[in-house]
């Protein structure tokens, strides 16, 4: 079971890398007002959602303690990010505020995952 959990953790990290990487590569474009949500960001957020749900299930099946409040907060933040990226994915330009919000929420989700014990 540990190997399977570790595989899903790795896939979860790949998802966050895709979402945050898509944001970071367009920071210059955000400054110019031409940033847009790309497919890497959408697929990264979806990967995070699917692997995160799988990780919760696998950890509970393995009789490990799961902090449901932490998972709920992370899920809420991810759903907001996923909603913003999904709704605006076909637009040529996204407002600076909305684009920055996705980056800030993604970064907040990373800090929640690593600092909240």
Radius of gyration: 15 Å
Structural class by sheet pairing and helices? mainly alpha
Number of helices: 5
Cα(first) to Cα(last) distance is: 22 Å
Can you tell me the overall shape? elongated
Q: Count the strands?
A: 0
The average pLDDT is 96
Number of domain units: 1
What share of residues are in beta strands?
under 5%
Unreliable sequence segments: none
The level of helicity is over 70%
Could you give a short account of the major beta sheet?
A: none
Order of helices and strands: HHHHH
Protein name: Integral membrane protein
Keywords: Membrane, Transmembrane, Transmembrane helix
Transmembrane segments: 6-28, 40-59, 71-87, 99-116
Organism: Streptomyces polyasparticus
Describe the structure.
- The chain crosses the membrane at residues 6-28, 40-59, 71-87, 99-116.
- Keywords: Membrane, Transmembrane, Transmembrane helix.
- It comes from Streptomyces polyasparticus.
- With 117 residues, the chain is mostly helical.
- It has one domain (2-115).
- It has helices at residues 2-24, 27-32, 39-61, 68-87, 96-115.
- Helix 1 (2-24) runs antiparallel to helix 3 and helix 4 packs antiparallel against helix 5 (96-115).
- The model has no long low-confidence stretch (mean pLDDT 96).
């Amino acid at each position: 079971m540990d190997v399977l959990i570790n595989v899903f953790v790795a896939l979860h990290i790949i998802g966050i890398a895709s979402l945050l990487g898509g944001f970071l590569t367009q920071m210059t474009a955000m400054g110019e007002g031409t940033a847009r949500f790309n497919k890497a960001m959408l697929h990264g957020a979806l990967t995070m959602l699917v692997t995160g749900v799988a990780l919760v299930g696998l950890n509970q099946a393995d009789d490990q303690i799961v902090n449901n409040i932490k998972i709920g907060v992370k899920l809420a933040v991810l759903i907001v990010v996923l909603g913003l990226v999904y709704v605006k994915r076909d637009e040529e330009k996204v407002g600076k505020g909305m684009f920055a919000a996705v980056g800030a929420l993604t970064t907040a989700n990373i800090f929640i995952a690593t600092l909240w014990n």
